């Protein structure tokens, strides 16, 4: 499973909007500027997130995006599924030996569990309380 820029940047949008939960809408241009990302690309991702019902848009001079639910009620899985599709590690499991099938399913289930249990609230609190350190995961 590989999370593309679509999933990573979409998660960035959601975390930034969650940081302002209850304070008002967050403009995409602000998110783009603070994270050095393309506002045009983020707007495309925000449309997907809005169509999925995770955020709503507010029009006007002080417009932007707001969460449709409390950050504790939106999981990382909700976001990743919208942007990346179903969580699949290996295609065509039926061609694998039973032992390998079981391994791939265990890994998939572990990834799903982490994504399900991690909420936007968790990510915002982590962002606010942890020193920033670069890391890279390859699966």
Which features does this protein show?
139 residues, elongated, mainly alpha
Q: What's the arrangement of secondary structure elements?
A:
Layout: H1 5-19, H2 28-35, H3 39-51, E1 55-58, E2 64-67, H4 76-84, H5 98-117, H6 120-129
Antiparallel strand pairs: 1-2
Helix pairs in contact: 1-3, 1-4, 1-6, 2-3, 4-5
Characterization of the model:
The protein starts with a helix and ends in a 10-residue tail after the last helix. With 139 residues, the chain is mainly α. It has helices spanning 5-19, 28-35, 39-51, 76-84, 98-117, 120-129; strands at 55-58, 64-67. Strand 1 (55-58) and strand 2 form a beta hairpin. It has a two-stranded antiparallel sheet.
